[in-house]
Amino acid sequence: MDGRFDCLALHLSLVIDRLSPEGRVARTWLQRLNECFVSDFDQSLREMGVGDLSVGRHVKQMVQALHGRFLAYHGALAAAPDDRPLIVALENNLYGTVLETDAASVLAMARYVRSAVAGLAQVPAAQLMAGALPFPALSSAGNGTQMAGMDNGIVAQSRHAG
């Protein structure tokens, strides 16, 4: 769950960072998107066998962790063009549970994040809220696999959430 959570938290943080200054409509849309993520966290925990009585506590911890990651990424991105704060934020969060991380992989991820931020900046807010999230493809370090853009149903859920 950690890897999936951190990947989603990173991308959600980038979308929040991009759309937060866009006004009330964007903030309302972001709230619905957050609600979809929380619902997904809840469902995932239940599927993993977490008992009904403790799901709420786990979801609360995940929401707090999501908020912490947003603050870390927001601060790191504000330090541009210096990538060191972003690299530290990625090492502490996205790679936080990885025992050994090579510097080249983290640097590649920092480049990916900067590319994603640039791509999001080029798209009008209304198009982003309609699901046009232009996340670049991410080549995994060394194994040649690709991670496609993030429109994996979460955005579609947020469009229908309210």
SSE topology:
Blueprint: H1 2-19, H2 24-47, H3 52-78, H4 84-92, H5 103-121, H6 125-129, E1 138-139, E2 146-147, H7 154-159
Antiparallel strand pairs: 1-2
Helix pairs in contact: 1-2, 1-3, 2-3, 3-4, 4-5
Explain what you see.
By secondary structure, this protein is mostly helical. The protein has one domain (2-159). Helix content is 67%, strand content 2%. It has seven helices and two strands, in the order ααααααββα. The chain has a two-stranded antiparallel sheet with strand order 1-2. It is globular and about 45 Å long. The two termini are 27 Å apart.
Write a concise keyword list for the protein shown above:
mainly alpha, 162 residues, two-stranded antiparallel ribbon
Which structural class should the secondary elements be placed in? mainly alpha
Largest sheet features: 2 strands, antiparallel
Termini separation comes to: 27 Å
Helix count, DSSP H or I runs of 4 or more residues: 7
Rounded radius of gyration (Å): 16 Å
**How do the strands line up in the largest sheet?**
1-2
How many β-strand stretches? Answer: 2
User: What is the molecular shape?
Assistant: globular
Count of separate structural domains: 1
The percentage helix is: 55-70%
Low-confidence region ranges = 140-162
Order of helices and strands: HHHHHHEEH
Strand content: under 5%
Let me know the average pLDDT.
84
